[in-house]
Design goal:
This protein has 3 helices and 6 strands. It is α+β, with helices and mostly antiparallel strands. It starts with a helix and ends with a strand.
């Protein structure tokens, strides 16, 4: 695990900090992030907003993809994401578990499953990351 990169993801002033997303496991085989479900993450009817589920899913895929690229020369950016919202959630904590299902030279595809504290499935997502060269 690249502890410096993991600490950067967890402490940078980004949407992760805003929503309370924290990456707790970071290996090439699996990336896990947790997030509290609070009014900040709700839609107007008091349930976890589907878009917020997509944010944590893409966070897992995006951060995890940096293990497969040369960050000095390349970036990994979201190309496509979908999500099936299986169960609602109004409070507590969710965790997103991402596993890479394809690691290519130009794309990385992730399967991300979001669960609650009782391991009930909340959302299933697939995210395709594009690997692009940084401009010099």
């Amino acid at each position: 695990m690249d502890l410096e990169l993991l600490n950067y993801f967890n402490n940078a002033p980004t949407v992760l900090q805003t929503l309370g997303i924290e990456i707790t496991e970071y290996t090439p085989e699996r990336v896990v992030a947790t997030m509290p479900v609070t009014p900040k993450t709700h839609q107007p009817f008091g349930l976890l907003h589907g878009g917020v589920s997509v944010v944590i899913a893409e966070t897992v895929a995006s951060s995890g993809s940096y293990q497969f690229i040369d960050p000095a020369k390349q970036s990994a950016v979201g190309l496509e994401i979908n999500a099936n919202h299986i169960r609602s959630k109004s409070s507590g904590v969710v965790h997103a578990v991402g596993t890479p299902i394809h690691v290519g030279r130009r794309t990385i595809v992730w399967d991300i499953r979001i669960y609650d504290e009782e391991e009930q499935l909340i959302c299933i997502s697939r995210c395709t990351m594009a690997v692009i060269d940084r401009e010099e």
